[in-house]
Amino acid sequence: MEKTTQPSPEQLKPGFLKLNILPWAKISKITNISTNKIVYPSELYTPCFLELEPGNYSIIASNPELNKTDNVDFVINPGKITIINHKIYLLNDYSVNDLTEVQ
User: Fold this and answer.
1) How far is Cα 89 from Cα 91, in angstroms, rounded to an integer?
2) CA-to-CA distance for 75 and 81, rounded, in angstroms?
3) In whole angstroms, what is the distance from residue 18 CA to residue 48 CA?
4) Across the 103 residues of the chain, what is the mean pLDDT of every consecutive 10-residue run?
5) What is the pLDDT of residue 98?
6) Around Cβ 98, how many Cβ atoms within 10 Å?
7) What is the spatial distance between Cα 76 and Cα 57, in angstroms, rounded to a whole number?
8) Which residues, in sequence order, are CB contacts of 90 under 8 Å at separation 6+?
9) Second label for 65, Cα 20 to 30 Å away, from 26, 27, 37, 77?
10) What pLDDT is attached to residue 91?
11) Shortest CA distance to 17 belongs to which of 96, 69, 90, 72?
12) How far apart are CA 26 and CA 62, in angstroms?
């Protein structure tokens, strides 16, 4: 008989996302990559602070004034804050992304 391991209460705690996109962005959806579930189907605008279940996520961010859309992938860990500082404008034909995790 196989023994299944239940996640601890600590592993089930939500994590948090602090999302800063410069100059600003409309977030059209946030998707949990593991489950392919859209967790925020309505539009959000940056900056924003969200509570999410632990997991791997993808965001679609756009700035209509710049005619630019970016995908940003990130990880949410239980009880932690993930901070994303992302520049959606172009610098020498590439976008800049900085991901920091704070405990």
Assistant:
1) 7
2) 10
3) 6
4) 68 90 92 91 88 95 91 95 88 49 53
5) 52
6) 10
7) 8
8) 68
9) 37
10) 54
11) 72
12) 5
Instruction: Answer whether 56's CB lies under 8 Å from 33's CB.
Output: yes
pTM score of the predicted model? 0.76
**Range 9-91 classified under CATH 2.60.200.40:** no
Q: Does residue 84 contact residue 72 with C-beta atoms inside 8 Å?
A: yes
Q: Where are the alpha helices (DSSP H) in 1-103?
A: 9-12
Pairing of strands 81-91, 94-102: antiparallel
Per-domain residue ranges for the chain?
9-91
Return d(Cα 100, Cα 103) in angstroms, integer: 10
Q: Please provide residue 26's backbone torsions phi and psi, each rounded to the nearest 5 degrees.
A: -95, 125
Q: What are the structure tokens assigned to 97, written together? A: 């992304």
Where b means 16+ CB within 10 Å and e means fewer, 38-47 reads eebeeebebe
